[in-house]
Amino acid sequence: MGKAKFKPADDVKPEVEEAEEVEEQRDGGEVAEEEEEEKDKSFEELGLDPRLIRALSKKGIEKPTPIQQTAIPYILEGKDVVARAKTGSGKTLAYLLPLLQKLFSDSGRKRKPAPCAFVLVPSRELCQQVYTEVSWLIELCRVQLKAVQLTSSMPVSDMRNALAGLPEILVTTPACIPKCFADGVLDPAAISESLEILVLDEADLLLSYGYEDNLRSVTSIVPRRCQCLLMSATTSSDVEKLKKLILHNPVVLTLQEGSDKEEPVPSNVQQFWISCSAQDKLLHILALLKLEVVQKKVLIFINTIDMGFKLKLFLEKFGIKTAILNGELPQNSRLHILEQFNAGLFDYLIATDDNNQTKEKEEVKGDDNKESKKNKRRFKPKLDAEFGVVRGIDFKKVHTVINYDMPQSVTGYIHRIGRTGRAYSSGSSVSLVSPGEMEGFEEIKSFLAGEEDKDSDIITPFPLLTENAVESLRYRAEDVAKSVTKISIRESRAQDLRNEIINSEKLKSHFEANPRDLDLLKHDKLLSKTAPAPHLRDIPEYLVDAKTQEASKMVKLARAAMGNNRRSGGGGNSKKKRSRKGGDPLKTFNANGSKRGRGGGGVGQKKDGKGSSDGSANKKQKTV
Ligand SMILES: Nc1ncnc2c1ncn2[C@@H]1O[C@H](COP(=O)(O)OP(=O)(O)OP(=O)(O)O)[C@@H](O)[C@H]1O
C-alpha cells in the first residue's frame, strides 16, 4: 500500500475534533504493483473475523482491494469515514465487512426495536445488489443476523412483514424512509434508540437525484453515537454537503492511483473515442459490433428510451440481438434483465442511465408527425424515480462500455465507464462523439487529464476500425436505418413494455418458487416480426478490409484466451491470476504487421478520432 498522508480537514463541524485526512496513493504499472504486493495487507492482518474471511474465500475473494485495506481498520475502530475510491474498487465490501463484524459481537444481545444498521443507496437496483451481497455474507458466516431491503414501491403490508422479524440491517433508498415514517412502518424514536451504523453508499449521487429532503428527515433522528460512513466514487459539492450534514470528526480516505492528480476512472479501463456525425453513429456501432472489434460483453449507453429502441431494431436487422434496460420497465423485469446479463445469457445490453424525461419531452416537441404525436399521447410511460443503472450497479464481466450518446456530465461519464474494469478485471470504453457533443467531450477529457496535464490523451482514438471497414457497411446501414421509423420505434417500445409487464407478473407469482424457470424469459427477443435478411446477418468477407479482419480475428482470439467465448455462468471471481495485458488486442494490436504493439501504432485512426486507412495516424496508444 502507498504511504498515508495525514492532514487536517478544514470543514468539519466546529465542535468536533480535527479530522484526519488520509490520502492513499498507489503507483500504477506492473513493477510498482509487484513491489507493493508484499506490503499489501491480508484480510487477517486487517483484523477481520475468520468467519468473514472464510465466506470471502468461498466467493473467490482472497485479497483486500486498496480501499478495503485502508477503510476496514478505521471502520472497525469505530471512526466516521468518508471513503472516495474509483468505481469498481470494492467499496461495498469495504463497509459491509466491518459493519457485519461489529454486529457479530452484538448478535447474542436482546433484539432492538429498529434496525441498528441502515445502508442508504440511490436506486432500487443497488438496493437489491447490496441486499444480496450482505445476505450471502450472513448465510456463509452462519450468524444470527437478519437483513431486509425496503423500497418505496412495496405495499405497506410487505414492509411490515419484512420488519416484523426485527432485522439488524436495513438496506433502502432515502425516499423510502419518510414513506415508512408516514405509514407507521418505522418509528423515528425507535431508530434514534437503535441506530448504530449509518452508511450512505454512492454518496455523490444521493443528492443529485433529489434525495436531500429525504436525507434530512433521516439525519434529524440519527443519534450522536451513531457511526456514519460515506462512500463515493467522485468528489463533489454534494459529497461535501452530506459530509457536513451527517458526519462527526470523519477520517477522509481518498484513494488515488498513479500520480498526484485525480484519476476517477480505473487505470485498467482503456478509454477510446470515435469522431462521427450524429447520423453516422448507427453505422459506427454496427461496424464495432458486426465486425467484432470490441470485446463482449458490451454495455451500450443511450440518452433516451426511444433511441434505445431505434438501436435495438436497427441492430436486429443485422442479426445482432440486444436487450434493453430502462426506467419504464417494471422493477422485477429490470432486476431479471440485470441477473441474466450478469449470468452471461446475452452479450449486448442497451441502457439508459437515468430518467431523462426532459430530453424525451424535447423530442416530442420537435416531432411533426401527427400519427406519431397521437401515439405519444396514448403511450405515456411512467418512469421509476428510483431507477438507476449506472448508480453503483456491479455488472459482471462487462468488457466494453460504448457511449452511443455522450453522457450529460463528467460524473455521468465516470459512472458509465466504471461499469467495466471492476475490481481486478480489465475493460475498455468507446465513446461515439458527434460535433454537437464535442464541447462536453472536451470537458470530460480535460477533467480526466487534470489541471497540470491538459494535453495528455487519456481518451485515445479507437485503433481497431479503419475508415474502409466502416464505409464498406455504409450502404447497408443507411438502407436499414431508413426502415426503422418513429412509428415502429414507438410500437416496439409499447410492445416491449407490455411483454415485460407480463414477464414481471409471471416473475413475481410463479418464478419466485421456480428460479430455474427464470431462464425461459429471454429479454433479448427480437422485436421486429421479420427475421434478419441473410445478406444483412452475415457480412461477406470481401466487404471488410484486411486490417479490420485481422483486428476482428485478434479480438476473437483474445476472447477465447480469456475463456469468454462460451456463455459463462454468473459473477464469481476467478481464482486464477491472468496476465493483465495478455490477450487483449487493444493493448497488443499493431496494424503494421507485428501483433505485439509497443504502446502505439494502432490501426487507422487519426488523433481527432476519425478513421484513416493507412494505420499510421494513431501514434499515441494508451498503455495500461
Ligand atoms: N477484494 C476483492 N477481490 C476481488 N474482487 C472483489 C474484491 N472486493 C470486491 N470485489 C468485487 O469487485 C466488484 C466491484 O465491487 P463494488 O461493487 O463494491 O465496487 P464499487 O467501488 O462500489 O464500485 P461503484 O462505485 O461503481 O459502485 C464486485 O463484483 C465485487 O464482488
From TrEMBL:
Keywords annotated in UniProt: ATP-binding, Helicase, Hydrolase, Nucleotide-binding, RNA-binding
Q: Which domain of life is it from?
A: Eukaryota
**Which ranges carry the Helicase ATP-binding domain?**
72-253
**What GO cellular component entries does it have?**
cytosol
Q: Where is the DEAD-box RNA helicase Q domain?
A: 41-69
Catalytic activities: ATP + H2O = ADP + phosphate + H(+)
Protein name as catalogued: RNA helicase
The UniProt similarity line reads: Belongs to the DEAD box helicase family. DDX56/DBP9 subfamily.
Q: List every stretch annotated Disordered.
A: 1-43, 559-624
**Chain intervals with Basic and acidic residues compositional bias:** 7-16
